[in-house]
Amino acid sequence: MHIAIIMDGNGRWAKKRGLKRIEGHKKGAETVRKITEYCAQNDEISYLTLYAFSTENWKRPKMEVEFLMKLLENYLEKELETYIKNDIRFETIGDISKFSDKLKKRIELTKEKTKNNKKLTQILALNYGSKNEITRAVKKLIDKNEEITEENIQNNLDISRDVDLLIRTSGEIRLSNFLLWQCAYAEMFFTNTLWPDFTPEELDKIIKSFHLRERRFGGI
Questions:
Q1: Against a cut of 0.70, is the pTM above it?
Q2: Which of 36, 113, 138, 142 is most buried, with most CB under 10 Å away?
Q3: Which residues of the chain register pLDDT less than 70?
């Protein structure tokens, strides 16, 4: 199973508690660890893709963006042991070329250190936007002089595996330019829970509800 999550609500979580937005991001990073460990222990889940930083997030205040970049760097350094202990492979989608050299090195090091892990693949969407991804895929086909077909486009996306279950936290009901192609037949769940409060127990309930749905993929 491929689960994709739009992690929304860090800022609102902090505001409700009279805290700075960065405190919500810190708490959200803790939730990432809990949810990832849960997925690694669930044999039916093979891929977990998390919307961590979109192409539109650069519009946020400079100090917040800088904090998010540092938080990501620290997270990857700190969580390497978690990845190895739980047999988790780390990957990314999106264009990380805009990131600092230090952050890019940390990303590549984490990928290298976890490349042989097999229990779960955790994918962080970083500087990612689905429209940008599809555009880049088509450009690749043109550059290679390959026929533009659905199959060829899918094979040239950042991630070709379709999403089975899409979850968005915080009560918003939209995709926000996330995995538009891969979610063509995904089952979608929207929860009012803010991301820092999202728990493995709630995810488990959503997965059970997912299994009760009949997926027809356009058929009868």
A1: yes
A2: 36
A3: 219-220
